[in-house]
Design brief:
Largest sheet: none
Shape: rod-shaped
Number of helices: 9
Oligomer: single chain
Number of strands: 0
Order of helices and strands: HHHHHHHHH
Radius of gyration: 69 Å
Strand content: under 5%
Distance between the termini: 41 Å
Helix content: over 70%
């Protein structure tokens, strides 16, 4: 296990070293490319300057040839002396041939010029400056060639170093021991350049991240503000709409409640009228029975059983009138406690004016009783005529100036409107009121739900604001690092 661990560590170390070597090779490749570009530029410049110098030499040769041709008319000389002059004008090193065509042409022209000037007593004044210019040009050409050779040797040396670094033989060796001081300096410069490039990249990344974060923050702030405005606007619109509907519903319910109270008061008044009518009928029936007992009216055709039934109906009618009176007094008292202006006075407290809604019911109730006379010529007046305010009929059955008492058929119990009708109407009104109350409760619950949603959205906005603050803190921390 220890050997395996050692091998693993050695392998990891070799991998790290290989990565370092790869980085160094990449750096040297970049440097080599830069040197190649610089050398190519220098070579191009040297070639251009060499071409310029060659052009200058050719122009000088043409000038010399033109000047010499004008002086070659009959003069001649030995080739040895001409060669000596040529050698003095264009010195050439031993064992080294001129490499340029322009140089060779120039040497030939100079030799010819030397042979032409052999026999002249005094030399021309232009020979010294021309030979000096040619010598300086040749020296400059040689300098440029040497510089080009040195550049090529430097390039070859750089290529060899790159091959040595990339070769596997030097992978396990120490890279610092095999490098010269110049290479170490170059490597340090390359590493510094790489560090500067990494710093620039890091600065660009930090700046781009900060700009992106700033854009995200601004976008989130704009979105949150827009959401807040939309939510507030929508909530205001919903609240205004709900408030308007609520006010309309309240007005509608108030009108319905007022109508129901009015109808309830009218029903109380109708009950009071029916109670009064029942009392009048009971008194009328009691008067008939008293007349029979006094012998003023013959009811022998009715029968004893029918008379006993009539007396029982009379007792029940009086009991019903008494209970209706008590219930009316109780209900009117509770209604006075709730709303005094909706009260309608009864017949006992003041004059009663029935509404058109119940006039048909009262008229039908009053016209449901029919009276039949014993003789065709005698007609029994109605109960309103008998019990008018003139006082013709009294409670004890005495009458003045009335004809003989006729025999009348008592009203049937089915002619009276049952109290269940009024109870059913009251029950329907109560159901309507309860339904309207339930609708109001539903609308109130809907308003509470909307308020809860608004609170939830407000909480979401606050949570998003907290997230933004946390992101700001993280950005500040990264900037500090």
């Amino acid at each position: 296990r220890q050997r395996v661990a050692a091998l693993v560590e050695e392998n990891s170390a070799l991998d790290r070293e290989l990565k370092e070597k790869s980085m160094v090779v990449e750096t040297l490749r970049v440097k080599l490319d830069q040197v190649k570009q610089e050398n190519e530029a220098q070579v191009a410049q040297l070639k251009q300057s060499l071409e310029d110098k060659s052009g200058q030499l050719e122009r000088l040769a043409q000038v010399v040839q033109a000047s010499d041709m004008s002086l070659l008319g009959g003069s001649g000389g030995s080739s040895d002396e001409g060669d000596g002059v040529g050698r003095t004008l264009l010195p050439v090193k031993a064992g080294k041939k001129p490499e340029s065509v322009a140089g060779r042409v120039l040497s030939l022209y100079l030799n010819a010029a030397g042979r032409a000037h052999k026999g002249a007593s005094d030399p021309r004044p232009e020979e010294g400056p021309i030979s000096n210019d040619v010598a300086s040009l040749k020296e400059e050409v040689f300098v440029l060639r040497d510089k080009l050779k040195r550049t090529e040797s430097d390039r070859a040396l750089m290529r060899e170093q790159l091959l040595n670094l990339a070769s596997p033989a030097t992978t396990h060796a120490d890279p610092l021991e095999s490098l010269t001081p110049q290479q170490l300096v170059a490597r340090v410069k390359a590493l510094q350049t790489q560090v500067q490039a990494q710093d620039l990249v890091r600065a660009d990344l930090v700046q781009s991240n900060s700009e992106a974060l700033q854009r995200i923050r601004e976008g989130f702030q704009q979105a949150s503000q827009t959401a807040r405005r939309d939510v507030s606007k929508q909530s205001d619109q919903d609240s205004a709409h709900l408030m308007k509907k609520y006010q309309e519903s309240v007005k509608k319910y108030k009108r319905e409640v007022a109508s129901l109270r009015k109808r309830l008061a009218e029903s109380h008044n109708v009950c009071d009228v029916l109670r009064t009518r029942l009392q009048e009928l009971a008194e009328f029936l009691d008067t008939i029975l008293n007349l029979d007992e006094q012998g003023l009216l013959d009811l022998s055709e009715i029968g004893a059983s029918h008379l006993s039934t009539m007396r029982e109906s009379l007792a029940q009618s009086r009991e019903l009138s008494r209970s209706i009176s008590q219930s009316l007094v109780t209900s009117m008292g509770s209604q006075d406690d709730q709303d005094t202006p909706h009260r309608h006075p009864s017949s006992a407290g003041g004059g009663f004016q029935p509404t058109p809604l119940f006039e048909a019911d009262v008229s039908s109730c009053s016209s449901s009783f029919s009276y039949r006379a014993t003789t065709p010529n005698e007609v029994i007046p109605s109960d309103r005529e008998m019990f008018s305010s003139s006082g013709e009929t009294t409670h004890d059955g005495a009458s003045s100036g009335s004809p003989a008492a006729p025999q009348m058929e008592p009203p049937a119990p089915s002619d009276f409107p049952p109290p269940a009708v009024y109870e059913s109407r009251l029950r329907e009104l109560s159901q309507k009121i309860s339904c309207q109350a339930e609708e109001m409760d539903k609308k109130s619950n809907a308003l509470r739900t909307l308020r809860g949603e608004l609170d939830q959205r407000t909480d979401q906005i606050s949570q998003q604001s907290q997230v933004i603050e946390a992101l700001r803190g993280e950005v500040d921390r990264l900037r500090c690092q």
